[in-house]
């Protein structure tokens, strides 16, 4: 059977994948690279095979952290912590508003701690009401786009943080 399709004008057209097949392929690829699907105890080589190259690697006192960030344009930063033997001991999506209060340590954290937890920010800015930099990340809370702002003083120590709505976006588009 000839695989070419005939158009109304009689010319040949190649068969095309339907939108559904393309969406299914993209969905399966995204699932395969979802850090939350990792099982505790997975080996480092298996993590790299499933998730690919991390966006950053940080040494930890008893192992290492593989950071998979969808920032600055995305809304998620997942940290895969490995123990000293190179096995997954925890996986955590850090840009979660319910975790900020128990994670961020004003007066103690330095810029390195912020980067090790959240990765590079969407932007670094200065404001007249604070001497230092304000680092900003995007995240989602329920169905709203939000921002995490971490204020870092001139000596590189976290002064405080706060969160706010992304007023420039249409929150009905938060599902993208």
Quote the distance from N terminus to C terminus. Answer: 41 Å
The portion of residues forming beta strands comes to 35-45%
CATH architecture of the largest domain: 2-Layer Sandwich
Q: Give the biggest sheet.
A: 4 strands, antiparallel
SSE pattern: EEHHEEEEHHEEEE
Strand order of the largest sheet: 3-4-5-6
The name CATH uses for the topology of the largest domain is Beta-lactamase Inhibitory Protein, Chain:B, domain 1
| Domain count | 2
| Alpha-beta content class | alpha+beta
What CATH first level of the largest domain would be assigned? Alpha Beta
Protein described:
This protein has 176 residues and is of the alpha+beta class. It folds into 2 domains: 29-93, Beta-lactamase Inhibitory Protein, Chain:B, domain 1; 97-176, Beta-lactamase Inhibitory Protein, Chain:B, domain 1, CATH 3.30.1450. Helix content is 21%, strand content 35%. The chain is built from 4 helices and 10 strands, in the order ββααββββααββββ. A 4-stranded antiparallel β-sheet has the order 3-4-5-6, with helices on both faces. Strands 7-8-9-10 form a 4-stranded antiparallel β-sheet, with helices on one face. A hairpin with a 5-residue loop joins strand 9 and strand 10. The longest helix has 14 residues, at 19-32. The two termini are 41 Å apart. Mean pLDDT is 85; it is low at 1-8 and 21-32.
Write the layout of secondary structure elements.
Layout (H helix, E strand, L loop, with lengths): L4 E2 L5 E2 L5 H14 L11 H8 L4 E5 L2 E7 L7 E6 L5 E6 L3 H7 L7 H8 L4 E5 L2 E12 L2 E9 L5 E8 L11
Antiparallel strand pairs: 1-2, 3-4, 4-5, 5-6, 7-8, 8-9, 9-10
